[in-house]
């Protein structure tokens, strides 16, 4: 059996089916993954067929989606509409409910042929950041760690690796990194005492981490995803994290501080990211591809850990745990 070769670039496509241009892009060995968005989704069956067509070209590609629950839930039709994670914290038996949510989310994402959802959010809800808000489990670091840990266990039981985001924490910075360059003026010690704690406590349970497009000027003048201080000294060094580091979308405004797409992918990979995401901008993806080809970056073997470990099949709702999980969430009034 041939060992899969993973590239260092994750891209996207515009529609619900592959175009000739998409196929040409996906054949490039520097491309190692593809992320789908709501615009790529019509139904679970259509997504399965799309995934099959992608794997026919590149069986080694990582196929991803953002399926957190709440407002960040790209798959919606024929899928359980999970609550925002913050809604779980106030429930009795919240840890078990978080575990059931993790299992349900992962099972449905795997069933359509994808490998992973970029989840869970480990940011703290400081009631400052509108872009994080109820996507976070809690504002208290210990409680957030407990609930996120339970969610990760549920994901693992379904066969999906977990990605913690947005390191070292996006919950304090008020600006939205999709449209601005947020800053967090706190000291490293303040961040260690609060926002960094879930990442530190769960570092061995996470297969991957996604850094924030936030500048923490008391620590480094670069956003975390472009910072060797954050990624190498703190994440790899202090936290002893050995998994994959995915950049957040390098087309977001928070990433523009380092220049064009070629400069962004180079800065992210040089700082320590293993795979850079360039989405919603095909011209930028092509620039990033040219840069990756020039850099001759070899993606780490650790990316293989992100592949799905199970495929629940299209009749997964017949699984006994399905009824159990759905019943528990309905009893807590978290789903319809």
From TrEMBL:
Name the UniProt record assigns to this protein: Beta-hexosaminidase
GO MF entry, a single one: beta-N-acetylhexosaminidase activity
UniProt-annotated location(s): Cytoplasm
EC number of this enzyme: 3.2.1.52
Pathway(s) this gene product operates in, as recorded in its UniProt entry: Cell wall biogenesis; peptidoglycan recycling
Keywords: Cell cycle, Cell division, Cell shape, Cell wall biogenesis/degradation, Cytoplasm, Glycosidase, Hydrolase, Peptidoglycan synthesis
Gene label: nagZ
Naturally occurring in which organism (per UniProt): Pseudomonas fulva (strain 12-X)
Active site feature: 178, 248
């Amino acid at each position: 059996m041939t060992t899969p070769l993973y590239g260092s670039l994750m891209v996207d496509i515009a529609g619900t089916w592959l175009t000739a241009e998409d196929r040409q892009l996906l054949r490039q060995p520097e491309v190692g993954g593809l992320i789908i968005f709501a615009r790529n989704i019509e139904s679970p069956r259509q997504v399965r067929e799309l995934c099959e067509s992608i794997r026919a070209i590149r069986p080694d590609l990582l196929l991803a989606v953002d399926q957190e629950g709440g407002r960040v839930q790209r798959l919606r039709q024929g899928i359980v509409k999970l609550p925002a994670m913050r809604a779980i914290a106030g429930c009795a038996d919240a840890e078990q409910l978080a575990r059931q949510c993790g299992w349900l989310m992962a099972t449905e994402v795997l069933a359509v042929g994808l490998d992973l959802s970029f989840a869970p959010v480990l940011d703290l809800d400081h009631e400052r950041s509108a872009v994080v808000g109820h996507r976070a489990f809690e504002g208290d670091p210990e409680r957030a760690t407990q609930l996120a840990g339970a969610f990760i266990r549920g994901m693992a039981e379904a066969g999906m690796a977990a990605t913690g985001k947005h390191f070292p924490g996006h919950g304090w910075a008020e600006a939205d990194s999709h449209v601005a360059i947020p800053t967090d003026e706190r000291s490293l010690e303040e961040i260690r005492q609060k926002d960094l704690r879930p990442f530190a406590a769960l570092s061995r349970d996470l297969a991957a981490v996604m850094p924030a497009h936030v500048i923490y000027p008391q620590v480094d003048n670069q956003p975390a995803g472009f910072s060797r201080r954050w990624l190498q000294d703190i994440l790899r060094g202090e936290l002893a994290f050995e998994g994959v580091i995915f950049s957040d979308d390098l087309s977001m405004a928070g990433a523009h501080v380092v220049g064009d797409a070629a400069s962004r992918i180079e800065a992210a990979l040089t700082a320590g990211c293993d795979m850079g995401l360039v989405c919603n901008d095909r011209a930028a993806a092509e620039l990033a591809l040219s840069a990756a080809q020039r850099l001759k970056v070899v993606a780490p073997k650790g990316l293989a850990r992100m592949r799905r470990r199970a495929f629940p099949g299209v009749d997964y709702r017949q699984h006994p745990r399905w009824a159990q999980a759905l019943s528990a969430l309905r009893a807590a009034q978290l789903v319809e």
